[in-house]
Design brief:
The chain is α/β, with parallel strands linked by helices. It is built from six helices and ten strands; from the N terminus they run E-E-E-H-H-E-H-E-E-H-E-H-E-H-E-E. The chain has a single domain (7-177, 185-204), classed as Vaccinia Virus protein VP39 (Rossmann fold). Strands 5-4-6-7-10-9 form a six-stranded mixed sheet, with helices on both faces. A four-stranded antiparallel sheet has the order 1-2-3-8. Helix 2 (54-68) crosses helix 3 (87-94). The chain is globular and about 50 Å long. The structure holds zinc ion. It comes from Neiella marina.
Length: 208
């Protein structure tokens, strides 16, 4: 996340080596282990994320509810990495919020990335980022001053837990964040940060 060069080997399993940046604590796979687009698409096509599935909506509600509690009527949002079924966008639209969506595979029109929003959501997507440093900058540029950025991703606890962590077994999961990494980003980029849930982080950008 920080382009520092202090990298240490973190873990090895049957398929990949994992490394950790000693500055921002991000854990990531070697470039050679990044999945090809065709492989990514094949894995995502297996995900069943139905807009009408009540369990899935409850899951996403843990990200949507804290934002809904903080934004004004008709505040505009973007779901970045919406996936094949834009369930989260539908949940905000139902509450009267105009929503744009972007996904490099499922909604690849980049037009929505040319403007700014009152809130941006990125659920179960940041762990797929191949260039997290760059993609984080993209996310921040999409949020208006005083706006919100919500991230949902499972967090790295420590090396021991990582060794048995099923989350890393998905070949499309390549960037693994921890509380420390998000705290580092908040401090560096002058964001306020709340840990809403074990896997939900809410950032607010500074006012102008
Ligand atoms: Zn780093």
């Amino acid at each position: 996340m920080c382009l520092e060069q202090r990298i240490e080997h973190y873990h090895r399993d049957k398929t990949r080596d994992y490394y950790q940046c000693q500055h921002c604590q991000l854990v990531f796979v070697a470039r050679a282990s990044l999945p090809a687009l065709s492989k990514e698409r094949a894995v995502y096509d297996c995900h069943q994320n139905d807009v009408h599935d009540s369990g899935y909506r409850r899951f996403l509600g843990r990200t949507a509810d804290p934002i809904l509690a903080r934004i004004a009527n008709k505040a505009e949002g973007l779901d970045f990495g919406c996936g094949p079924g834009p369930a989260l966008a539908a949940m905000f639209t139902e509450q009267g919020h105009p929503m744009a969506v972007y996904d490099p595979i499922f909604a690849a029109d980049r037009t929505p990335l040319a403007k700014q929003y009152d809130f941006v959501t990125c659920t179960e997507a940041i762990e797929h980022f191949h260039y997290p440093h760059k993609e984080w900058q993209t996310l921040l540029q999409l949020v208006r001053p005083g706006g919100w950025l919500a991230i949902m991703t499972k967090l790295v606890a420590n090396k021991e837990r990582f060794s048995t962590w099923h989350y890393k077994l998905d070949p499309t999961h390549v960037s693994f964040f921890s509380r420390s990494t998000f705290e580092y980003l908040a401090q560096r980029d002058q964001l306020t940060l709340e840990f809403i849930d074990s896997d939900v982080m809410l950032f607010q950008t500074p006012n102008d």
